[in-house]
Amino acid sequence: MATVTIEVVAQDTRGPVPGALVSLVAAKQNPVVGITDQQGKVMFRVPAGSYHIRASAARYDAFTSFTVISNEILLPILLMKVAPLSQASLNLRWDALQISNWDAHFMAAAGVNGIGKGKQKVVIILQPGTPIPSFIPATIEGVPVEVRFDEFRLLSTLPALKSREEILVDRRKRWRPIVGGISMGHQMVTAGTYSCSVVDNATRQRMIISNNHVIALQWGEQEIGRRGDPTLQPGPYDGGGIADKVGELERWIKVVLEGKGTNLIDAAIARITHPDGSRDDILEIGVPRPVIEPKVGMLVAKSGRTTGLTRGKIEEINATVNVGGAGVCTFVDQIITNYIATGGDSGSPVVNNLADRNILGLLFAGSDVRNVVCKGSHIERLLQVTFGAEPGPPPDFKIELNPNQIAIKQGESGRVEVSVVKV
């Protein structure tokens, strides 16, 4: 396909604007991104077609459109000055910014572990020890960029803290009925956390939910779990064996390796098989309420096997991050909090606060300073379950009293037969 050489010149009334992030976007294509040199120039080779172009630098942003119709010509484009950004304008730009338009470009670069939306900023996360690359811009679409160093791993790969062991020992024991925030796991793992009960949208039955890597082991290079595998409480590391089976693996969303796709959740559900069932609540939190969407700065709380009840806040949303475990896997649209969990806390339910108790998602990964949470809204949609709901008959069925029943008087005992019939 014939290409055209494009020269973009970024300048304002004071002259060239070096270090501006320039992006060319064509319909149904990923952005082509470059940084202007000391003369405010950057070159691109692009096929013929229609393009939108944007140049962003500190306090400046310019946008135009053009069409390439000739072959091998130099087409200069002048990007004019715009007014300095007010706080209101910055808020609008932050609201409009879609990380999904940029993550593929930055995540493809060596040493980049993530990108997300922080408070009125974009945060680009680099592998610790990596020099800051020259392609990291000062702003993206007029929103300031902050560089941070971090590396995320599954919590099961992090060492468990022992400072609160005596206080938290009860979470690692056998609980009947089971309750959110206690030890749980597949027979082939150490131990994670039972998040809480959810309701299956199809059957209206109460189900166990936790991380995929806690009860399913269908994560990256792992393909261990099978439907019907036992779910143990407590997990094997805490002494759980087959006699401690409380459920059977029902379904999960496979976590794929980096390069084979992206992931939204690390979650799986299991049928409850123990006759004692599950309580509705989560230890030290209470009965959870329906899912809400996260916001930067929102206060959160979690309840987990290792560190119990901890509180924190959301630092970034809409984050794309690489997570190490059984291989490296890329997760998109994630929540990043400050440090609230460690090894054994995988699967911990995260709520917005102890008063409202709305589910935000499930904690599954982290580092020595931060944690990663997959969103409850994605979990509900992909696994077809509902948080904070009451179980009951399937929605397409009703319960009817069978005819010819003998009346039972008050204070007497008797047998009543009912039928569940399709509506």
Structure description:
The protein is elongated. The protein has helices at residues 87-96, 103-107, 165-168, 212-215, 376-383, and strands at residues 3-12, 15-16, 21-25, 32-35, 41-47, 49-57, 60-68, 74-79, 112-118, 121-126, 139-140, 143-149, 152-154, 178-180, 183-186, 192-193, 196-200, 206-210, 230-232, 245-252, 268-272, 278-282, 299-304, 308-325, 327-338, 349-351, 359-366, 370-375, 385-386, 397-401, 418-422. The chain is mainly beta. It contains five helices and 31 strands. Strands 9, 10, 11, 12, 13, 23, 24, 25, 26, 27 and 28 form an eleven-stranded mixed beta sheet that branches. It has an eight-stranded antiparallel beta sheet with strand order 16-15-19-20-21-18-17-29. Strands 1, 2, 5 and 8 form a four-stranded mixed beta sheet that branches.
List keywords for this structure.
423 residues, mainly beta, Immunoglobulin-like, Thrombin, subunit H, 3 domains, eight-stranded antiparallel beta sheet, 5 helices, elongated
User: How many domains, as an integer?
Assistant: 3
User: Tally the helices: what do you get?
Assistant: 5
Radius of gyration: 26 Å
Considering DSSP H and I runs of 4 or more, what fraction of the residues is helical?
under 10%
* Average of pLDDT: 85
Q: What structural category do the secondary elements indicate?
A: mainly beta
Biggest pleated sheet: 11 strands, mixed
**CATH topology call of the largest domain:** Thrombin, subunit H
Q: Which second-level CATH architecture of the largest domain applies?
A: Beta Barrel
- Name of the CATH first level of the largest domain: Mainly Beta
| Number of DSSP E strands | 31
Uncertain runs with pLDDT below 50, 5 residues or more? 70-76, 79-84, 161-166
Shape: elongated
Percentage of β-strand residues: 35-45%
Q: Give the termini distance in whole angstroms.
A: 59 Å
- What is the H level of CATH, i.e. the homologous superfamily of the largest domain? Trypsin-like serine proteases
